[in-house]
Amino acid sequence: MDEDGQNSHTGVNAEKDEGGATTDYITTGNGTTTPAGVTSTGSSAKADGRSTRSSANGPPLSAVHMSSSVTENGRGTPPGSAVGDDGEDQKSRPGSQELSERYNTPVNIKVIHEGVSDEESDSGWDTDLEIEEDSKESYDATGRRAYTQACKEIGVVPVSHFLRHITTNKISMKHHGLGPLGAKAIAIPLVTNTSVLTLDLEDNWIEGEGAGYIAEMMKENCYISDLNLAGNKMRSKGAKVVGEMLNDNTSIRKVSVAGNDFKDRDAQPFADAMKINYRLKELDLSHNEFAEIGGEILGQGIAAAESISVLNLSWNHLRRNGAISICRGMAENLSIKKLDVSWNGFANDGSLAMAEALKFNSTLQWLDLSNNRIADEGALLLSKGIEVNDSLQILKLGMNPITAAGAMALLMAIKNNSNSALDELDLTDIVVNKDFVDLLEEIKQGRTNFLVFFKGAIGQFEKPPEKEADPLKLLVQHIEKNNLRIWDLFKAYDKDNSLTVTRDEFKNGILGSNIPLTPRQIDRLVATLDRDGNGEIDYRWIAEMTGFELPS
């Protein structure tokens, strides 16, 4: 050290405090001042990849500030403490703490910008340890940022429709081709979303993997109550994860997993869900491949279900024991009001089982057995249940091989049941006979709102329509009744007094005279009067036929 207290190393200054102690300071490359022997923090020269000693060739230190209190971000802070950016008291930052301990006095570290004086510097009270306010990210309440970040990390393209509707109560993303990874991306922001109540992801081919992501999200989300995962090729893996989700989620009310290639073994998760979930109201399992074994499994779930009111099992392969098990479940069920088992194979055995169920079930109101290979024998068996049931309101049996005899048995059962609630009987594509029509008219006299749909009736002939009156005769009668002349009808159009008008002019003349002719009768009259087919009508011929006089 020389006489002026300058160290032999360039860039190192020394000062003596009032107690006679000497403090060494080092000017770092970024303009901060650090005591010798103290490791600098923040954006120090070392953090920039340089040692503090390597900055010896930098500009000399212009000032050293020491005070009895530390001032940070313009706020006074008691010695030995600091206030972080989050507003909580923290220990002194590493640099100032070590200086305070070493020199037994609070030290304020001031940044001196190269070539800028203290007075000119607008950041004289900033340190490298401080966090800029601009770097803080506000809470993402919408989830848009989380979604775009998830898409970036997963490697999928963000869907603008999802971004636009993430704050609405319904997101409908049918046919968007999301795939498993796309489903994962939308599941991430929906975990904490509180706006969306309905999520429709039909036909996106998310498969079992994507179904897993959605199911995990639904275990956490307690706001979505309507979920549509139809047509997504979820198969067995998807059936398992969705079934497990239904066991845990008590906020969901409506679920559709139609058209997902479920086999018999995949029925178990949904049967378990029907037994456990006491909040689920609607379940759609249509367009799958549940057959005999699957029907037996689902029948057990139906018998134990306490909350489901709408169940759709249409377009499966339910038959024989599977169909019978479904019906036995319905005999015990007390919640299902609407059951759709159309396009299956119930046949006559299933009809017998359903008839027995109708004898005991007093909840079911809507039943669709369309296209189930039910013949006249099945219709007769089914009528035995209709005779005693007092809750069923709509029965659909269309497109079954039922003849007029089977239809008659059904209608007779309705007539014989004075407590029947049936308002609609659908026999689409079934031909009835005159006896059926007569009985229907008799029933309608006491039940005016009763509706029956059928294809047609054999032996019933409609009254032939009344023969349409001759339009020319009606024209003549109108002229005579109102004391008109034929020329008066068309003089406004016959400018050259040629006694001829075009077809359109003739029609306009008839319509303008309020002659009681229908459009069809006018067309017939025009075709009759335009004898040569040249598009013009010579009304002189009308006068000759009727004896009316024309102007001379």
Describe the structure.
There is one protein chain. The protein has 552 residues and is an alpha/beta fold. It folds into three domains: 1-136, no CATH class; 144-458, Leucine-rich repeat, LRR (right-handed beta-alpha superhelix); 471-546, Orthogonal Bundle (Recoverin, domain 1), CATH 1.10.238.10. The chain has 18 helices and 20 strands. The chain has helices spanning 94-103, 144-154, 160-165, 179-190, 207-220, 235-248, 267-276, 292-304, 320-332, 347-360, 376-386, 404-416, 434-446, 471-481, 486-490, 503-512, 519-529, 540-546; strands at residues 12-16, 22-27, 33-35, 70-72, 75-77, 81-83, 89-91, 170-172, 198-200, 226-228, 254-256, 282-284, 310-312, 338-340, 366-368, 394-396, 424-433, 451-458, 500-502, 536-538. An eleven-stranded parallel beta sheet has the order 8-9-10-11-12-13-14-15-16-17-18. It has a three-stranded antiparallel beta sheet with strand order 1-2-3, with helices on one face. A hairpin with a 5-residue loop joins strand 1 (12-16) and strand 2 (22-27). Helix 11 (376-386) packs parallel to helix 12 (404-416) and helix 12 (404-416) packs parallel to helix 13. The protein is flat. The model is unreliable at 1-34, 36-96 and 107-135 (pLDDT under 50).
